[in-house]
User: Fold these one by one.
Assistant:
Number 1:
Amino acid sequence: MIARFSTGSRALNANHPEWWVGAVSGLAWCVLLASAWPGAGHAHHEMAPNYWQQFGHWMLMMAAMMLPLILESARIAAVRSFWWRRHRAIALFVTGYLLVWLLLGIPVALLPPSPLLAAASLMVAAAWFLVPVKRRLRLGCHLTIPMEPSGWRADRDCIHFGWKIGVRCAGNCGVLMVACAALGHVVIGMVLIAALTLLERVRPLNAGAVAAALLITGVGVATL
Amino acid sequence: MALRIRKNVWKLSVNDQTLLWYARAVGVMKSRPITDPTSWRYQGAIHEYTIGEDPLENPGEALPSAAERQRFWTRCQHGTWFFLPWHRMYLGWFEKIVQAAITSLGGPTDWALPYWNYSDGANPDARRVPPAFRNPTLMDGSTNHLYVAERARNCNLGNIMAQPFDVDLDCLTEPSFTALANGSTPGFGGPRTGFEHSGGVIGLLEGTPHGSMHVAVGGRGSPTTPPGWMSAFNTAALDPLFWLHHANIDRLWAVWRKRNTQHVDPTLAQWLTGVTFEFHDAAGNIVSNRCQDVVDSTTPALNYRYEEESDPFQVAPSPPTGVVVLGAGGLTMAPAVPEMVGATTDLVLTDAATRARVPVSAPTGPQLAAAGGAPTRMYLNVENITGKAGSQRYALYLNVPENQDPKSHPELLAGVLPMFGLKESSRSDGDHPGSGLQYTFEISRVANVLKSRNDWDPQELRVVFVPYDTEEDPSGPMLAAAPAPTPPVRVGRVSLYVA
């Protein structure tokens, strides 16, 4: 049994070195779910969260919701690297990617959770679904770039790769993420939005863009 | 209805009217406005359409609404495992529209799209454009709707317009349909992707002969003139030859499956049913298909087969290599995990041969322990190829001595870079992420040749990109320098993988 597990884990690591990025996302979801569980952190919920709590929650949300979207890109960063630095390449790529969300989180964390802000964000996000530039940004999330094989330039290129994907991803999904934050990181909202962002990466949403926009608008109205 | 037969265009009898009816139907479709889904230009736009780059644009004309364009136009699938099934759907609905036009003209009711088998070694004319497509007028002086002026010069002159390696069928020997997207095989049919993707590695069939023949027909253009229609995604389907070319590519998919029982299509639901593609039928109604609808062309919905689906090699393919593992189902072959062992970045290809050196390191991963450090397969990846205009094709040779002409070393040819769709793939817009093109070549055979000559250097691989196009007469100097400069093409990276 142990030998079989060992063989399986080696195969997983060889074929999908990005596995741990998915694991980090899963862990972040667990923390988010645990913190939302009834009875959990009552004392914390009775007070308005301070800036750092807000910021921490934002980054946790990004790890949970956004990292699954970049698994393929993380794999590409690894595959295009020497074997001995594949995990380093992934870590640098994820660093560059999360740096974008970290910078976005600095002002977002200043905003207190508010149904009005959430509704407004959702309305903007719904309209965003119908704008051609969103499609361009969504496609840009599949970008690849040439990367040096070794040395500091290889590290730089991995970070740069993550940054470029992050910028496009933030442009594509940023308003929805702001809405999630304004909703006070409600888990059901995060699950729905995560599913929507995942779906639009793999299926043609042209026909469904209007439906998605209406759905988001409906949720926005419901929050008021 | 009896099964329709898609026939070899070069074997049509003198009295056969398949092409005459095709020309008449194209004329009918061309007379329809672009807002009509059954019009010639609408059908071409399904492949790709770029406002401002439509060569048939009429000033002031109305286009379909933005929502309709976004839903039905620019849907072509390249660099993905949907390449073959999507184009089969596309051809199938196009064929029905042509058939309806022919019927409305009083023609036969069993018309089927012919195919252009340019790889037929028994036909000395195979690499010429069929005569029916070469003259602007018919015998009676009327317009020949199969003629397009925007082709490489040799095409409409009736010269041989492609090199033998443009029509090579090595792709049929690839056992796997799906690319592993890990630096190794690009697969027969391309990499596993979603609907919107990065323009991943080009599958073997999509590279050659598909891409090679696109650019062989379209030519490379110049800094001041765009290439012929067949060279670009957004104009290719405006050339009536496009449809015969793709019928042949579709035929080769059937040939690949038939030549070996181990050649099978993907069985994952993500491929079979994961994505729904939308088209229009002959009445202009919206219709949709998933891959599972088109895996068998003889079902009533498609109802065709090809005149020739036999194995062009007539020999058993070599078995796949890999690591034998004992699984629940008995002995199975697990593909060896490849690792990158060397790369060089940022090359600029011009009209002259471009040489580069790829520093190579010893494997440190699974290949270190495998086979005593001697990898069984080697792959060369040419990544992130970008350019602002159409390009000529490039032949890629390995370890050619500095003072020797690569063309005198066909045994060192690693592969061909067709560059089909280079311009469109290079720009970041609503239809492409801008990553450029990526080709992968298995170079194990060339490496073995070099090793047998003691010309293999385990610490360095020398590559040379040699431009060629169809503007010259192939019976003359085959790889002569191009007559007019073309904008440079950038190669983001060349990398070597071992498995």
Note: Residues 19 and 132 of chain B are 7 Å apart (CA to CA).
Number 2:
Amino acid sequence: MQLAIIGAGQAACTLIAELVRGNFEGHITVFNGEGITPYQRPPLSKTPIENSLSPERNQLLPPQVLTDPRITWINMPVDTLDPDTGEVTAGNTTQDFDHLVIATGTRAIRPSIPGLADEDLQVMRTWTDRLKLAAATHNARHVSLIGAGFMAFELAASLCHPDREIRILARGPRALPQTSAETASWLIKHSAASVLTHCSVEGFEASTQTLQTNQGSIPTDCIIATVGSTPNVELLTPHGLADADGITVDALMQTPHPRVSAIGEVCRHHHPSLDRTVRIESISEANDTATVLAKRLLGQPMAFHAVPWFWSDQGTQKLQIAGLANRDDEAEILTADDTRQVVLRHQDGHITAVEAVNAATEFMAARRLFERGDIRLQAVRKVGSVMAVLQSSRS
Amino acid sequence: MPHVLFVDPNEAEIEAPFTAGDTLLHAAQHAGVDGILAECGGGCSCATCHVILNPSWDGQIESPSAQETDMLTFAIEPTPHSRLACQVILRDAHDGLRVQVAKRQY
């Protein structure tokens, strides 16, 4: 089989590693549009900006996989593809494939800010972004992060410096809407940044180095947009296989077209553990979808069944989330002291997510319990710890 | 160059060179050691880079943090010498360290 993998991020690399490990009988061609040896992305936002990272020290694949003779690496973005014929065109080369895997991931949204040249707007998604941000923040005294999600708080911690003022601008009523208000409060309290809510950006005034907002002028010599990302679906949109929120696939990562599969952050599928169809951006999603596809390509199909999990390092604070709550799910603090906090998200008596700050055992216990099925709110309330529920279920 | 000797789940031995400051995970990945998943890429968030240090090195390697100890309770059959490879920082003095990769990460 001639297999084309478009993209070389976490999902693509997990797929490649699993296919190599499973002695895949075919040839793999990887289109790596970024042109950099595949690297780990989490450290880009989570590592202090003054610490130099290098792609070589953060490689996603071991050397023997990178040099495996069954794999051809093409350091070029794909221009067009044709699912019906399997034709992929990159630059002036066109090749035919038996199967196409779309692992193109997402890209940072770049809002347009009047008065600010696009090249002066920082984002964080790629190796190049990190290098640009390191240069742009080298002497920066007033950093404004537009958008108040995990990325903003990770970068605020990574940019923390005694001579630097960092602001996070939230358009809505509060920061970190992905978590409960209780978890958000904890993280805001421990963040180096100050948070402004209901704040909308109107423009940038270069002569005074100020960001114009509905709440007045904010001194700013570095602007970082952390307003989220958008899936890279352009190759499939013309073929009716994608919309603005991604590529829909089944439980085996197959699109409606028999020749095309999609994995990672670009795909949207039904999550049995959540009982809904969503597109998720996380390492676990990249790895789990890639593993499902690898098994299918190796002739041992197994439907997607994993439970999503997330983590965010924000300086000394470590947030870990097992499961995925709906935004309107209830929230209650299970335990909290000076160093840690655990929040339960729930709906109709069932736990939908466990948000743990500096509480790894509660996070891991929740993952294990979710993998087996349901976690009842009453059971956890009764014993006051997710770990205790896990232990009692083992005995 | 100093090196670590990994023993993978199939008992194959792999010499992994390192530079002081590298993590044990980095050395293992660079040498292509089998059996380490490291799903979170070295963030102490998944407990799938479980290794067991040779007991003769007791006291010569910095102790695990509370976070790592918590995560290790979820490794498969942890021992008193278990570590998460992503959290062990190597120094030149660790030349010759012998490390068993856990039989299973799940």
Note: Chain B touches chain A at residues 22, 26, 29-33, 39-45, 47, 67, 70-71, 73-74 (CB under 8 Å).
Number 3:
Amino acid sequence: MTVPTFSSWAFTSWGNVIRKPHEIAPLPSRHAAFPAVPSQTSVLPYGNGRSYGDSCLNVGAALIPTRALDRFIALDAASGIVTCEAGILLDEMFRVIMPAGWFVPVTPGTRFVTLGGAIANDVHGKNHHAVGTIGRHLVRFELLRSDGQRLICSPTQNPEWFSATIGGLGLTGVITWAQLQLRPIAGPHMSVETIRFANLDEFLQLQSESDRDFEYTVAWVDCLGTGSQLGRGWLERANHATAPAPVQHAQSRGLNVPFAPPFSLVNAASLRLFNTLYYHRPRARHSDRWFESFFYPLDSIGNWNRLYGPRGLYQYQCVIPDAAGREGTAALLEAIARSGQGSFLAVLKAFGALESPGMLSFPRKGITLALDFPNRGQSLERLFVELDAIVRATGGRLYPAKDGRMPPELFREGFPRWREFTQFIDPRCSSSFWRRVMDGA
Amino acid sequence: MKKILVMGAGSAIAETTARLFAQRGDSLFLVGRKADVLESMCADLRVRGAKAVGMQAMDANDFGAHEAMLNAAETALGGLDTVLIAHGTLSDQQACQASVEQTLHELNTNGVSVVALLTRIAARFEQRDVEAVVGRRRRAGERAQ
């Protein structure tokens, strides 16, 4: 039997809207050469597939799965600098760095992303106002190009490649390994305060008060609230607990959704019920929580995306620049409430002013709103078009990692450095997302 | 804290197992064909908590090198109390049917080399009061028609 070196497999992204076969271009180790593929086929690095739309897919062409690149290279326990291969999951990293007293400087809402994927999407977290995106905490990384070059990229070495690759959606080549400055923690617990707010103005007031004293802030908003209740919800603000405690990771992930039900369990009735109960539930103001329950509430339900049924889900995450933050966010929430197509998890967060080195980095000073919607086809797209118009009028933009449908003009207006970015794209790299947003350019 | 020799360390099952050993603070000596793979594994296992890690690049079919390799492993770890044998190949049945040379090569890799190693290891373990554990994994090489 000959072991195939170029085979085909069905890949999807977290939204489950697209599931298509891709050729596989293997990269067995960080020392291996850039995979050889037929000259007319483009390739795209693929980590753990946690992007929601088509930014991690390359339909009709090839993917370079990177999960096999999951070795640590070094951990300096004194300075908190970790060096590891780019296919390692944050979850795997935690098992080593946390007992040593360190935590990642920035984490997205799931710990099942690869380090390379976190860089390629320049992820942000609940502490964006305090520390910015992950790109600000990278010491250096190696970029493997299809011509065989291995570029060490840092703020001072190949800085233009550093800037293009952070938030570069995997298009500049393969990140083989990266070095990250961690942040010290006393233990694995979080000291959390949970406060209810009655509307958007209260949220803004609470958020600006909280940003001074809390490293992490995030709000859940009931997107079915209207009128004086528009933008009501809960704010969570937290710091790492100062008391040391042993780090004991659960061996199993607990609940799991084993298959997609034939229709979405997220519908108008379940949404209204959930949102109302969730808003009114009594909650203790202070709590001491295990870090996973604070950062990753959804990770405790394996494959929660399947609840949205076989047609999958779309996420809509935008940022409204500061000047228009209040009005823009209100307009978005009003449009969503009118449509009746609410979201279980509408997340509201104020981004800070710290800039990322990333050329196509998404966060900027302002308010970000993130929502999940079951894929209802045309009626959902009509709502999205309405939301797009609001985002566009405020000079805002959508997050490519979450997107599967934004119009090309919205991308190019929102990310004005796209033209500069194109000169850093590897000639062999492409993605479904990139072809879509470059249409007509 | 065990002192463990891992043969065929670059295989997926051996690497995953070695990580579990490392997490509990064992000492490991890795043997495989590719030096660059072994080197990056050594670094990884150190970060994961291995007390000591050593390595040697060797082809299991180089029977003459076995004794020196075992000596090196014992020296590096200060003894040896567990061996995991995980080397092997996924044989190409058709190629073997067409070539006696290929067939013998596969038999050496997946059979004779293991016997050779076990013979030497058993002799060493018998001489001492060792908690002898020898793991052996069968590969999917028996997928003949």
Note: Chain A has a mean pLDDT of 92.
Number 4:
Amino acid sequence: MGLFDRLKQGLSKTRKNLVEKAEQLFYRRVVDEKLLNELEDLLIMADVGPRASADIISALKEKVKKGEIPDTVELKKALKDEIKKIIRDGSGINITADRPYVILTVGVNGTGKTTTIGKLAGRFANEGLKVILAAGDTFRAAAIEQLEIWAERSGVQIVKHKSGADPAAVAFDAVVSAKAKNADVVLVDTAGRLHTKINLMEELKKVKRVISRELPAAPHEVLLVVDATSGQNVIHQAKIFSEAVHITGIALTKLDGTARGGIVVAIKKELNIPVKLIGIGEAMDDLRDFNADEFVDALFE
Amino acid sequence: MFESLSEKLGGIFKKLRGRGFLKEEDIAAAMKEVRIALLEADVNFKVVKDFTEKVKERAAGKAVLESITPGQQVVKIVYDELCSLMGGSHSKIHLAPNPPTVIMLAGLHGSGKTTTCAKLAKGFKKDGRRPMLVAMDTARPAAIEQLISLGSQINVPVYGTKAGDDPVEVCSDALKKADSEGMDIVILDTAGRMHVDEDLMKELENIKAEAKPKEILFVADAMTGQDAVNIATAFNSRLDINGVILTKMDGDARGGAALSIVSVTGKPIKFIGTGEKIDLLEPFHPERMASRILGMGDVVSLVEKAQEAVDLQDALTFQKKFREDRFSFEDLKTQIKQLRKMGPLENILGMIPGLGKQLKGVAVDDRQVVKIEAIINSMTRQERENYAIINGSRKKRIASGSGTTVTDVNRLLKQYLEMKKMLKMFKNGKGFGLGKLNFKF
């Protein structure tokens, strides 16, 4: 199954609601104020947020005024273009030639960091890369065991300490071990933490610092894992996490429900952080590289 | 990022100060701001629409009370309406007449079910009951181990089998075991699932049929966005839930999902989760939630926390010393201890209305407080009671004893002296009476 179909399928439950509504709207002939306002509601419903939605709609209104949008077909296209323009530089994860390539995942509690790492490990192992996992969530009960099970599933190595150990030390050991064993990729898990906990954010900075000290170009990728069902608070999260450890991309998980994850549009718009991965199901290969065109098309087609 | 709603409304209503009545067009303008505030707090847009309509009706033609501005009056109407929507006061967990009382938790992945189960169990244990936890998440890797580990931390037995087992069977075995061992509370930790996953939702119905729970609690993340209505509706229509537990309230999400969930399910929010430690499950208070959704801070919780943490006798002694200008480093140490009992500083400061915004970007570092404590601890008793004897060589000793520098010690001494100066102003009655503190609604 192609990615587009898979994404559409993942979004199919979503579609019933959103798309039917969108179709209804676009079915009308006249592009008027009322239609545009309803379109704004549609964006808000997708968690794009009141500000970003208002901006997108006012850009469309501008075009309508100039006579660039004569009918609803054009309106639909213009809406998609407007959203694509915001999120288009999102792309997948590209492992460069630099070895070992270190990916650090961070985020608030329960967004799916460990699962995302587990799936990424499977993907890289399939590509024939030598992967080492770092069990950096030393806080949550059984988080290390959880990552161990994922390591077993994809037959990759794992570096772990005891529960309660310093996560920076785990990351350090993983990087050292990766260098010694000529591993290609190191995936560093971290404990979920609310961005409002200063001490935990300091701990995260230390993890990153220790990795960089051992390997100056690393971490090559710092992924913020975002739950697609979350709302506007994610903008805050992204901002504060980015200030602490400079986020390079977002992994948007749990897109297989009815949530649309429109928050990534607002994040890209306000903080210029691109989406890199999307999670559309529980199976190992349900973590996909992000593609802006497909993301928007699957939402409105 | 979020301007306080009352500030924004203040701007709108500035021009009509003193006109006496709320006029329709002014209310309409105000409702636009209320709408954005609620949407920013993640209240579902349909719920927002119904809500603003209702408030418009209530506000129209209302006389503006003399003591407050029209903006404040509208905020008050909005606030009251929010409170009444979210329920009178918090409701408790109902126990079955014949034990064991079975409590079932359900929700999406990562909403915090397992942690919440442990918190509930700890609460029951504190009340002298005999709770048992049942690990029914046989799908997620190491979920059973997670519950077992939490159970051992709080000394509550956990019934757990192995990954891949049928949860319905696990449930029926667990209930037999609970019965034979005389447990009076059984808490079922079900696996996280998508509300659109037909098979897994069916599984929940089967578990319900098997366990006949007295309470089914839907666990929802306070950060949930617009989709909260769909999720809550699905869980409620399949399970007919008894209530909701809102987790991760220790973050800075405004928690509009609370309003969305209550309005579509009509079920009360029973508890809120405010931390990763296994004792931080708190009863839900609609008034506080309303303030939070509107971005007005949470004074009541702050006061309550202070009451819990501060010993009355200590407070009286302290007050006396305060008045007599005998406030020593020893007292400062006690004060810091009490402040820390109230929880992480950033949580506390977040509850102060109006501070929320100013604090964004300002690092509230608990470790600064740790530093101060260390310095005081490195002083001799004499030094603590009489700061004047702290000379250069004493400073050096204190610094090396506390792992700080002489500069740190000097800074603390300076702060302490400033504090004393302020206290003197207090004493002379010149300073800031509490009445002068301007509490904005």
Note: DSSP finds twelve helices and eight strands in chain A.
